[in-house]
Automatic annotation (TrEMBL):
Residues 384-413 have a biased composition (Low complexity). It comes from the Bacteria. The gene is bepD. It is found in: Cell envelope. This is Efflux pump periplasmic linker BepD. Residues 70-205 form the Multidrug resistance protein MdtA-like barrel-sandwich hybrid domain. It comes from Cupriavidus laharis. NCBIfam families: RND_mfp.
Amino acid sequence: MVAGTGGHVRTMLNWRSAAVLLAVLLVAGCGKEKPAAVAPPAAEVGVMTVALRDVPLVYDFVGQTESSQQVEIRARVNGFLDKRVYTEGAVVKAGQTLFLMDRKPFEATLQAAEAELAQQQARLTTARADLKRVRPLAERNALSQRDLDDAVGKEQAAAAAVEGARANVISARLNLGYTTITSPVAGLSSFAKRQPGSYIDATNSLLTYVARLDPMWVNFSLSENEVLRIRTERESGAIKYPDQDKFDVVIVLADGTEFPNHGRIAFADASFNAETGTYLVRAEVANPEGVLRPGQFVRVKVHGATRTNAIAVPQDAIIQSQRGQTVWVIGPDNKAQQRVVDVGEWTGNNWVVRSGLKPGERVAVSGTLRLAPGAPVKAVEARPGAAPAAASGAAAAPAAPASGAAAAAGGKS
């Protein structure tokens, strides 16, 4: 009994010692304070203050080049094609010989016409001599009036026959000249559609084409919605066009290089294409070196128009998110909030913002990757070099365009 009681006592003492130790540790732990959380530093971002300004517009279209004068080279007489004397696909000069036809039949025809002319001229000479003898005799009543009338009629008939024979000579000489087929314009030649030895008549007279390269036309189209929108904005004063609608047209080639010669709007169709629902506009550009060739696809940038009292922000300020296009707006408390905006034209390095921003608000233009909604920021005014167009109110690119839209949508300025 004594031994059992002693073991029980030792067990109870061990439990009490453990409980006392745990209590001491808890008291010691409660006596220490938790360290305070350290707030992250405010992100430094470049900002610009939104303001209303006139913004140059640049409208961008896809265009296709077209020769300003594409000429069909056709044979004008029937006969055998003798020779092709130009290099297919080469640039030819005005008046350069392209094809030769067999001349022999036409030379023979010309000789026959000339002989006929000589014969008729001899008859005319005889008729005039007879008339010269008959007229004095008729005046002295040695011959009747009928004899005089017959002589006069023969002389007039012979004169008419001479004129007819002379016309045949001219026609034969023209036909002989038509056997040498030349180019009426300087331009780019096409392949020969008929080969030497072919018989040419009215059914297969087309031999090739020559396309003039200078100046070159560039055709592009505006949709009906674009024309109506531009017309409405022009009438309301939201868009202003240059004096006399003189737009500057810049051609960008397929490799991204800019064609050195600028063009002008030369033609705007008076009606819409019922099949495509578009409005044709044509620009004309000097092409003395022949760099542009017919059928090329190019980008057409039309400069000259200005959007008045607009809000424009640098390209870097616009962020594409799940909600659409947004900007970071820095509030008076220097905290960032993301806002959805309606973006319009892209002009130079700027986006025109139709709605979503008000004058006087600050927009982050750099350092936006470090921002979060409600996060404090250190706003630093953006340097002019960071957003040149937005800071100065002018787009980096040259003037703006309303392209042929001006002619199409606005009518007269």
